[in-house]
């Protein structure tokens, strides 16, 4: 005789299933609340309570202190890269780059000046660069002129390398791959008009390229000289 | 004898393809890169470099390119000339690249300097890569079979 399922048993099973479903929903709800709690961010700005700094007599009144507990080293703050004018709130006049420069402070008659540290860098937010707040003086005007000349040297340096590189490669390309067509090879070699033209073009390109790289080298050394002057003048600004 | 002549011709063609490809990549990068970088720096000479780059592309895609170029690449001394030219190009760009590289990381804080450095350094890398590729093809094709 097969076992029959009675009415109360069916009701119990339905109730259990309903309980399981309700339990599952409750569990899911709790998980969601917990996850939401993890991402909770306070919308209220904490009130900065003024605190009294350490008093000089505190150490004296206290007895011998227990040996300090070794603490984990605190991580050093990440150095902020200095971008020059873009790192500061600057007005006109302004000049220079991330190594040497100056700019007027907005709404003030003072100036920001900065320069690479020649020796040890003083405490500051930017590594390798000394940033100062100065008044308008003749030394500052001289510094501005030097920085302006340095900017010009950097621009000329860039123009020189682009000119030298572009003409130089074109010259190599035309020289190596064009001589056969222009002058012929072996028994076909002829020093004709096309060959003379090829020779003149290659020579002209070579001279142009040389002048470009020469401009680069000249302005590179000029930049170095101006940087030394800028460094000295920066220290003369009161 | 004729097989040997055929092999030499094939070697010259392969070497020519590789070396000319290297020259073209380098020339296009230098002219187009210098053009764009100069114009971004406000230097109007950039238009001239861009024009040279576009003219190079037009010449390369024209039907007259290989007949003209093959007159030079078929010379027996062409591999030596190409390798010397590759070395010359690499030397032209390695020195300024190293000068800019000496200023890392500060060079990256200045957009104009970064552009010039990347342009010169990539050209130097292409030049070295082209030289290595040329030497590799030369050794592989000329080596004992």
Topology overview:
The complex is a heterodimer of chains A (238) and B (145).
Chain A: H1 7-38, H2 58-61, E1 90-96, E2 101-105, E3 111-116, E4 129-134, H3 138-183, H4 193-236
Antiparallel strand pairs in A: 1-2, 2-3, 3-4
Helix pairs in contact in A: 3-4
Chain B: H1 2-40, H2 46-61, H3 65-73, H4 78-101, H5 111-142
Helix pairs in contact in B: 1-2, 1-5, 4-5
Average pLDDT metric of chain A? 73
Q: What's the tally of helices of chain B? A: 5
Biggest beta-sheet profile of chain B: none
Bulk shape of chain A: elongated
Strand order of the largest sheet of chain A: 1-2-3-4
The residue fraction in helices of chain A comes out at 40-55%
Helical/strand content category of chain A: alpha+beta
Query: Helix tally of chain A?
Result: 4
Euclidean distance between termini CA atoms of chain A: 111 Å
Would you count the extended β strands of chain B for me? 0
Mean pLDDT value of chain B: 85
SSE order of chain B: HHHHH
Fraction of residues in β-strands of chain B:
under 5%
Main sheet attributes: strand count, strand direction, barrel closure of chain A: 4 strands, antiparallel
Strand content of chain A: 5-15%
How far is the first residue's CA from the last residue's CA of chain B? 16 Å
Oligomer: heterodimer
Radius of gyration over C-alpha positions of chain A, nearest whole angstrom: 38 Å
């Amino acid at each position: 005789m097969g076992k029959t399922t009675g009415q109360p048993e069916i009701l119990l099973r339905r109730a259990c299933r309903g309980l399981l479903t309700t339990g599952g929903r409750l569990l899911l709800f709790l998980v969601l609340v917990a996850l939401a709690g993890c991402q909770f961010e306070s919308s209220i700005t904490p009130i900065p309570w003024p605190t009294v700094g350490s008093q000089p007599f505190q150490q004296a009144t206290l007895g011998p202190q227990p040996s300090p507990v070794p603490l984990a080293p605190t991580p050093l703050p990440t150095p902020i890269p200095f971008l020059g004018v873009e790192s500061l709130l600057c007005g006109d006049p302004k000049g220079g780059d991330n190594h040497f420069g100056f700019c007027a402070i907005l709404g003030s008659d003072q100036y920001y000046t900065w320069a690479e540290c020649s020796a040890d860098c003083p405490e500051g937010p930017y590594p390798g660069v000394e940033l100062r707040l100065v008044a308008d003086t003749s030394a500052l005007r001289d510094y501005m002129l030097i920085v302006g000349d340095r900017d010009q040297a950097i621009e000329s340096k860039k123009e020189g390398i682009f000119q030298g590189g572009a003409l130089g490669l074109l010259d190599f390309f035309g020289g190596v791959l064009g001589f056969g067509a222009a002058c012929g090879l072996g028994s076909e070699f002829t020093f004709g008009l096309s060959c003379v033209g090829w020779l003149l073009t290659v020579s002209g390109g070579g001279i142009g390229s040389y002048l470009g790289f020469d401009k680069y080298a000249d302005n590179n050394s000029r930049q170095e000289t101006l940087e030394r002057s800028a460094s000295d003048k920066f220290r003369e600004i009161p | 004898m004729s097989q040997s002549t055929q092999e030499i011709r094939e070697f010259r063609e392969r070497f020519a393809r590789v070396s000319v490809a290297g020259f073209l990549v380098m020339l296009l990068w230098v002219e187009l890169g210098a053009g764009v970088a100069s114009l971004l720096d406000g230097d109007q000479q950039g238009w001239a470099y861009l024009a040279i780059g576009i003219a190079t592309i037009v010449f390369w895609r024209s039907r007259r390119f290989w007949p003209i170029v093959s007159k030079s690449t078929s010379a027996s001394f062409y591999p030596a000339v190409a390798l010397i030219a590759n070395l010359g190009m690499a030397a032209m760009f390695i020195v300024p690249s190293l000068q800019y590289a000496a200023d890392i990381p500060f060079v990256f804080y200045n957009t104009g300097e970064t552009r010039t450095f990347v342009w010169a350094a990539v050209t130097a890398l292409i030049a070295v890569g082209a030289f290595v590729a040329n030497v590799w093809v030369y050794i592989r094709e000329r080596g004992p079979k």
